[in-house]
Structures are given as C-alpha cells and as structure tokens.
Amino acid sequence: MGRTRLVVILLADPIINNVFFKIDTSKFPGTGPVQPGIDPQALMMEIAGMTNLIAAITGPVAILSLVIGGIMYILGGNDEEKLGKAKKIIMWSLIGIVLIYGAFALVSTFIMRKFEGL
Question: DSSP letters along 65-92, please?
C-alpha cells in the first residue's frame, strides 16, 4: 500500500505541475519565485511585543504570589512547615519578578533603543 501511494505521488506531480498549473511566463513575466525579505525592524517589534505581552501577564501573577507568600508568612505563626512554604513562595516570586522585569528592561533598552539619548 505504501509503494502504491509513492508511485501515485511521483506520477501525479509532473501531471499536476505541467498540465493543471502550467503558467505562460511570456504573458506574466513577474511569475518567478518569491524571495521573502527579512525586515529587522519588524523582528524587533515582534520581540518587543512578545516581551510586553509576557510581562503584562506574568508580572502581576508574580506580584500576587509574592503578596500571598507574605500573607502566608504572617499567618504562619510558629508552624515551621507553613513558614518554610511561605519563604519558598516569596523566594520564587522574587526570582520571577527579577527575571520578568529584567527581560523587559533588556528588551526596552537594547533591542528597542528607547534610551538612546542617555
């Protein structure tokens, strides 16, 4: 069954390209292959847009988890297990905040060159 499909594909390809999709290039001189161009400015805008989106979504979540960790620490009392869990939440929230807003600052400064005059 697999060889039959391969034979049909190999035979159908020239028929489709030469019969059904035959283009008279003398009438349409601009029908050559299209070479996509890379626009560095558009790439930078995409990177900045993605960084802004990620910071806008994950930043408040990290700050909320920091607040929740602080509340858990306050309400933990003398229970070492609850205090340890609250400390872990606070530590990982701070690491997340530094990473999120650090990446945002790097993209804003170096890629977008917003602080070029400083």
Answer: HHHHHHHHHHHTTT-HHHHHHHHHHHHH
What pLDDT tens digit does each residue of the chain (118 aa) get?
A: 667 777 777 777 776 666 666 666 566 566 566 666 777 777 778 888 888 888 899 999 999 999 999 999 999 988 999 999 999 999 999 999 999 999 888 888 877 665 455 4
Angstrom CA distances, 53 to 21, 23, 65, 98, stand at 43, 44, 19, 16
Nearest to 45 by CA among 117, 107, 115: 107
- Please give the model's pTM, rounded to 2 decimal places: 0.59
